Amino acid sequence: LMERKTRVKINRKEVMLAKLRKSCSCTPKKLKNFVMDFLPVLRWLPKYQCKEYIWGDVMSGLVIGIILVPQAIAYSLLAGLKPIYSLYTSFFANIIYFLMGTSRHVSVGIFSLISLMVGQVVDRELLLAGFDLNDDAPSALGDGSLQNDSQSNTTAFNLTIAGMNAECGKECYAIGIATALTFVAGVYQVLMGIFRLGFVSMYLSESVLDGFATGASLTILTAQVKYLIGIKIPRSQGHGMLIITWINIFRNISQANLCDVITSAICIVVLVTAKELGDRYKHKLKFPLPTELVVIVVATLVSHYGKLNEVYASSVSGAIPTGFIPPKVPHFNLMLQVAVDALPLAIVSFVFTVSLSEMCAKKYAYTIRANQEMFAVGFCNIIPSFFHSFATSAALAKTLVKTSTGCQTQVSGVISAMVVLLVLLFLAPLFYSLQKCVLACIIIVSLRGALRKFRDVPKRYHVNKVDTLVWVITMSASALISTEIGLLVGIVFSMLCIIVRTQRPRTTLLGQIQDTSFYEDDLEYENLSSVPKVKIFRFEAPLYYANRNYFLKSLYRLTNLDPNLEAARRKKYEKKEKQHLRKGNHTTANGLGIGETTLQLVPKQIDFEALVVDCSSISFLDTTGVNTLKEILKDYKDLNISVLLACCNPSVIESLKRGGYFGKDFGSMQELLFYSIHNAVQFAKDQK
After folding, report:
1. What is the pTM of this model?
2. Beta strands 519-521; 608-614: pairing state
3. Residue among 226, 267, 196 nearest 442 (CA)
4. Which residue range or ranges hold the STAS domain (predicted)?
5. Domains identified in the chain and CATH numbers
6. Taking a C-beta distance cutoff of 8 angstroms, is the pair 264, 440 a contact?
């Protein structure tokens, strides 16, 4: 016999007060630990092993910096902002994560999916404010702008928009929206860290994240096609943007710029070839080839000296100024406009960062603090938003490059930031003649990893059909409707799949493995012997209000007996027998004698006298679940069939006790509850 341990009653009020006193107390030691936890760099930097780490950190920092510059300029197309803002974002994100991050290898900065989400909000707000989304439209640049060479658009939009200065033009308003969105997303992340809401990321399964990334990649690819072939079409907004954009592309395909088409074809061939060779011989290369930088340098030189913009009307990046703009507080009124859009941005940014951090920590045998990662990403958004930057996240491709080039700590992030700073201060104007189609090629080639997920669909389907369906639904919604709605649809659909799987779980009867005390699924295994007069029923899910009816239907179907119908049938038969007896007829309704009536009361189909319920897969019971078990106990007892429970876990037993299943004093507990199926079967045989 096993006896439950007596639980010591805990005074929750005292525990809460003790925790509150501890958290509210302020001692020098506690203050020091708080600062060290908030800025992890103070813990690991004094222990930095310079001789061992410095070479790997410098090399990986330089490589990432070289990759980061062309990607930052390219991703500005996705965000609908000028390249200088992408460079600001990359610089500040690396510095802040160096101070606050707990992962040694993650590369935080500009990320294609986050840039896309920012760009969609920026485009929508620009459209609502009455601005032209055409990239080549003249922009009015007033307060906070970098250049002021076009005053015509200023007077065209001589109005107060969301409380902003009337002098503010398209570019100024766009970065105002982006910084407000970034600030609110950062605040959400910090609040989630304070209230320890990191568990929200658990609802984003791998299938949802992969589907979201693939769907968003299709949207990114679609948005770049117009730059590849050099056509001018309006930037589509709202739901169904992917389909509308492709319709516009085919309508205007005749206007394609031959120069841009040729340039794009050459760049894609060079980039893909270099990437494939790099993947094939990566074990022989000490660091990846800086193909993007080489392509950008060569393309810029060809465009400049070939005068592709003047001769062939090829669209170029334009002037990228040097230096920093004075910091500016994001506009509060704009924050209210984008408060809802900032929530999915905050969650996606955090989830990608934490998942990559955990991947690196597991690979290199150290630990991260998910809550501190939330703070780090939050402040990577809040602080740079004052310096004309937009939202950031960890990026998978750059993180993999970072680890492969010998990165040891986040010192490599500082080196990358210095490379970006060099471009910001001195080299930015050199990219004036860089064609936009080259930037589009870099973006599209960087999507290879996400787009390759389509090749994994058959394998994914073979492993798990439900997860494949979640991936397809999330990907389709993200691509065909919008990224935010796609993410929401993916989360809701994956939860519905879990609910449906618990509502209609697997149910089966068990048979005994010959000459053993073990029992298994009669439908899955051969050579199992049935136990005479005993049915063993297994229900592979928690028993709660949503699957109560399915539990009963499955039980009645598999045992071929509905006790309620059988009881009603018997009552009806007994009533008819009494009517015949009152009339003085000594034969029953079926023509049998009174002595033979008893045989008719027990139907032939009842071939068992005990029902054993295998509860090993029932993780919990709610009130409805307890009442359901009490109901079948009573119903089968009326038919002289005993119901025995086997393999219940402690929480299920506790629920049954509280629900009165075993009676007031638990007197019948030893006759109703067994720790193994075999014990229950033996008890049923002895009772028979």
Report:
1. 0.79
2. unpaired
3. 267
4. 524-684
5. 37-132+169-500 (no CATH), 507-571+604-687 (3.30.750.24)
6. yes
